[in-house]
Amino acid sequence: MSRIAYVNGRYVPHAQACVGIEDRGFQFADGVYEVCEVKGGRLIDEARHMARLDRSLKELRIDHPMPPQALKLVMRQTVSRNRVRDGIIYVQITRGEMRRDFPFPPAGTPPTVVVTARHHDRARIDQLAEQGIAVVTMPDIRWQRVDIKSVALLPNVLAKQAAKEQGGREAWLVDAEGFVTEGASSNAWIVSRDNKLITRPLGTGILPGITRSVVLDLIAAEGLVFEERPFTVEEAYAAREAFVTSASQLVMPVVTIDGRPVGNGAPGLMAGLLRRGYSQMAAVS
Ligand code: PDD
């Protein structure tokens, strides 16, 4: 079955889907995006993703392309037209298309909206979670507003590629003081030797992950011990467990950091508990 994309008001086959060469997303990475998990054809944690999208647009002063209800309808249509049961939906909104010039285009320039959906192999991701993943640390060279989910992801791309070339599936980005900020496309967590769950607090230095926020609710519901504070690479090396969270992988155990085994080198109990508990906490719509 050929894939269908939504582009500026039309549903079109992927091969014919296009935006203009002077789209500001293409020229300046002047746009934002969201990735939402689809499970059994339903959207997971949609309200939180929509709220974050709204915030990203506001922070960059990009107009809403359509009312939220209309966008939700487009997202559902895109999922169903592509017959996605388990996968992800991708929404990108840019400041629109205009002759290349740095300042914003004239008021009223319509934003560009692209929505795509794709299937993913849940069994393969679950299998990966049983093995755990390797992460590689590297300097965080991103801009100072990574709390905005903008499409300007070049440092993340370079970090992920470097991690891949070193046998890792994720890069952990490290700030100038030696603290881990987050993964190149996930939030980073450790479990200390005394069983405290530790992750960096929100701020301009990390993306406010939706999966992170749901895991925090789960931690509160389970009464687990939790500390929201930055942790160093050395602490991570010495941790009992480590894991990452993101919409596409949910809770994914980390078993090595820079080639050193975390804990006993196998996925940890806490990560397993949170991964299993996630579906009870996540909102389905
Ligand atoms: N990435 N941090 C970064 C830098 C991310 O890119 C992501 C998500 C996260 C986790 O956020 P959430 O739990 O809302 O998915 C944290 C998505 C999945 C992506 O870019 O594909």
Give the count of structural domains. Answer: 2
Q: Could you estimate the helical fraction of the residues in percent?
A: 25-40%
Number of beta strands: 15
Distance between the termini: 25 Å
Q: CATH topology of the largest domain, what is it called? A: D-amino Acid Aminotransferase, Chain A, domain 2
Number of helices: 8
In short:
About 30% of the residues lie in helices and about 25% in strands. It is α+β, with helices and mostly antiparallel strands and about 280 residues long.
Explain this structure to me?
This protein is α+β, with helices and mostly antiparallel strands and 285 residues long. It folds into two domains: 4-120, D-amino Acid Aminotransferase, Chain A, domain 1, CATH 3.30.470; 125-281, D-amino Acid Aminotransferase, subunit A, domain 2 (D-amino Acid Aminotransferase, Chain A, domain 2, Alpha-Beta Barrel). The protein is 31% helix and 27% strand. It is built from eight helices and 15 strands. Strand 14 and strand 15 (260-261) form a beta hairpin. Helix 6 (210-222) crosses helix 8 (269-281). The model has no long low-confidence stretch (mean pLDDT 97). The structure holds N-(5'-phosphopyridoxyl)-D-alanine. N-(5'-phosphopyridoxyl)-D-alanine (PDD) is lined by residues 35, 182, 185-187, 207, 209-212, 245-248.
